[in-house]
Amino acid sequence: MNYFFVFQNKTFKEEHLGGFLWAPKADKNGHTKSHWTMMTNVKKGDVIIHSVHKAIVAISFAISDCYSSSRPDTNFNDWEEDGWRVDTEYRTFQKSILTSDYIDELRKLQPEKYAPFNSRGRGNTGYLFAANAEMFRLIIEETAKVQSSYSYSNQVLELLKTSSDKVLEELSEYSPGLIVESIKSADLKNESNYFKHKGTPKEKQSPIYSNGQKSYPRDRQTALNALAHAHYLCEVDKSHPTFIRKNSDKSYTEPHHLVPMAYSDNFNVSLDVEENIVSLCSNCHNQVHYGEGAEGILRKLYSERKEVLERVGIEVTLKELLQMYSYGLGFFEL
């Protein structure tokens, strides 16, 4: 397991909610920077320490190796289009420590090369830097001390016992990040071209708790069924361009829970049901998450799904749905 340290003063919200790290490959003059190319060293299972305005707000575990990816649509316009991306599973802290309070210790522990802090005790200008297990241990131990309860402190300390294999096992098939990745790379050669809605409510499963955060399980096959119901076309506009998946004759679209899973507590039935999952092209999916005009997309999808949602026990008004997105909770949910 390797360790990294990322400065996310401008982009933490988007990257946290989207579950990723992203950096450009080069600037507008074609020049590369070591704190960008450091991304290529990140492998599945590695640990990233997240700093926002000197506060250590989270750690995350890479759930993919670094790969090429175009620039995200929101809050990244200062950078060039081509970049590097790593998909990650974030574990945020209830309360944070400041690096400035531990800068002497961190500087002594940090690697000799490509380290996050300079000789003046300030963060180096850049994005991703090398870290190590000693820095990680210090940060976790000190973060545990400032939590508001014994339970939260223990959850933070449990991270010290984590190996890369254990991390990937704990994320499980129900992790939103892994579900997204498995669907993106799914081989659909044997998948049906059609799925019919059953129109019956689905029992809500028990929530999963991870590092003090609650989420509800998602099922990969349910998402794939929803894509098949839409014939692997974008439900905003069937003529929207897409592409054919590798090793399959199916068009590439992405599943999106219309009523976000983050609001599961508001309902007595599961939101992870085919009737609540829409098939979107990559552009519409990103627009719903990050772009202007998302409200128009939501209005259209709601009008087409309202009756179907009611049949499976998901009763929500248009106003309530728009409020769910405007407040940001679930705005970046699958």
Automatic annotation (TrEMBL):
It comes from the Bacteria. The keyword Hydrolase applies. Pfam families: HNH. Residues 249-290 form the HNH domain. One of its GO terms (molecular function) is zinc ion binding. The keyword Hydrolase applies. This is HNH endonuclease. It comes from Andreesenia angusta.
